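Backbone shape codes:
===
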Amino acid sequence: MKTLGILAMAVGLGYHPTPARLGVSATEFHLTLSRPSVRAGVVEIELQNDGQDPHDVRVRRIGGTHTFSVPLTKPGSRRSASFNLKPGRYRLWCSVASHGELGMQALLRVRPR
């Protein structure tokens, strides 16, 4: 019974599950993901620019039209952004110049909760 009371308080206070986290390392001309999949819901994507050029990350569900983005990040810097991702497969790429076409892309699977 005590557990139900704590759960009710958490819901009443607007409790939200901890977001899934995904690290993305960017170098010329590769994106490396810290894991191949995450659970659906809020996902925090952290871009670590380990390259010599500025990079960003764009995220779009395959077959979708909405693009999420982690802003342009200077070499040696880190930026993060959170997005609400639905289950499916997502393409990640760097949109700077022709970086995506040169190999700066990756696939992410978002699993159902």
Observations:
- The mean pLDDT is 90.
- The chain has one domain: 19-111.
